[in-house]
Amino acid sequence: MARGSRLARVPALGLLGVVALTGCTPNNEFWRWGWPDGITDEAVDMRNLWIWSVIAALIVGIGVWALILWSVVKHRKRGDELPKQTAYNLPLEIVYTIIPFLIIAGLFFFTVVVQNRVQDRSEDPDVTIAVNAFKWNWQFVYPETTGDDGQPVDTIGTSEEIPILVLPTDQVVRFEVASADVIHSFWVPEFLFKLDVIPGNENGRDNVFEVTVREEGAFVGRCTELCGTYHAYMNFEVRAVSQDDYADYLEARESGLDTAAALESIGQPGGPQSTQAWDLVDDAQRADG
Prior knowledge:
By secondary structure, this protein is an alpha+beta fold. It contains 7 helices and 10 strands. The chain folds into 2 domains: about 100 residues; about 150 residues, Cupredoxins -  blue copper proteins (Immunoglobulin-like). A hairpin with a 4-residue loop joins strand 6 and strand 7. The longest helix is centred in the N-terminal third of the chain and has 34 residues.
């Protein structure tokens, strides 16, 4: 068999291997390459976009590496005679102009499709949560409730207390986020989504998003926009519970119980499970020496 034919098999076998491996489910941890699995319907779309983008990049990479190897072997020095020089190759130039354009166009198309799906708003969400960010903590308001003081039930974090946002599973939850001062960013890693909280945008479309949580548990939330001295301490927790437990939690809050007591009344730990509060005063004193 000619050397050129054997070399031609290298990229072909590489591409065949990648295609064969893609028959495995994208949910497999190997294919996520460190990308979180996600706990929402929206996270599935974003996870798949990431996985298939990386697979496409691997296919392109294998092709490029194979062409480089072929060029090195095919055009290696065989003597002192200068090989034929080619100044222009119009067909080749057209090919390596069109192919990158098609790759970029494909990535752009699928990114826009996923983005539109993730940012889609329902006409009537099951639950609405108002998220208020401020230096350097969070307030979560349940607008459809009425506490014993006549105001909507809310949970607000302090330097000693991590705010816990309780959500129901298998329901469409709408977040209306706002900032009291500077730009913050609402991020729950397991949502595979974050949204910058821009002050002055009175809960406009850009400050609204929806998710449907499919897994119960405790998940850390963070601010991912550098917002000042204690930005790194601006954590919160999402506690996803069943719909019945969520209804019982809100009923307990409306009766006058605080967040911890209401969580314990439905059999949940009253304190945060995924993060912790820090003593900002002590930390500042240590930083000052």
